[in-house]
Design a protein that fits this description.
Helix content: over 70%
Largest sheet: none
Strand content: under 5%
Length: about 200
């Protein structure tokens, strides 16, 4: 029990590392004060360009991947693996280094899925890419791909425990996109490729 608690705490701290903020600071920019104010790769792309956005994306994905990999190595329990991944996503969205504020968690969630349920992870990325290509709204791609995540997990994996984890991940990410939903409905949401 103590080992599991320490593992989950580690994953939360790992997820809390704000790569977008770090990359922005290196470039002399407080990413939280430009564009949408989000620390994720999409805002870094709009505000700083492709290179910094790619570094942010890789860092955020790896947080989720390392969390699940660590849990798999230590416990080998799919439920704990899922909770570890969820903890890393929660750390990203409520970073202890940013006074419990953070990003939306999409890239970190993708990192979790790519190792937790690889086929489901690839399917989720594919849905996101299709929606973004059709609409140029990154947030809409995230909302659609994670709204269907529990169903995708059920169809492509089927493990009950993983479906439960998928529901929890989907709920957290949709909750974090509430402001984006309001902007989408108002027609004021920024599109991919627009400058901040």
């Amino acid at each position: 029990m103590a080992v599991t608690f320490l593992l989950i705490a580690f994953c939360f701290l790992l997820g809390s590392i704000p790569f977008g903020e770090v990359v922005g600071r290196i470039r002399g920019v407080d990413i939280r004060k430009v564009g949408s104010g989000n620390i994720g790769a999409t805002n870094v792309l709009r505000s700083l360009g492709k290179g910094p956005a790619l570094l942010t994306l890789i860092g955020d994905i790896m947080k989720g991947t390392v969390a699940v990999a660590a849990a798999r190595y230590i416990t080998g329990d799919p439920f704990i693996e899922g909770i570890a991944g969820l903890s890393s996503i929660a750390g990203h969205t409520f970073s202890v280094f940013l006074r419990f504020r953070g990003g939306k968690g999409v890239a970190t969630a993708i990192g979790v899925l790519l190792i937790y349920a690889p086929v489901v992870g690839l399917a989720t990325v594919t849905v996101w890419l299709v929606v973004v290509a059709a609409t140029r709204y990154s947030s809409l791609g995230a909302l659609v791909s994670f709204a269907v995540l529990p169903l995708t997990m059920y169809v492509l994996d089927g493990a009950r425990v993983k479906v439960i984890i998928a529901v929890l991940i989907a709920g957290l990410l949709i909750m974090r996109h509430a402001a984006n939903v309001r902007r989408l409905l108002k027609g004021t949401e920024s599109r991919v490729g627009e400058k901040a």
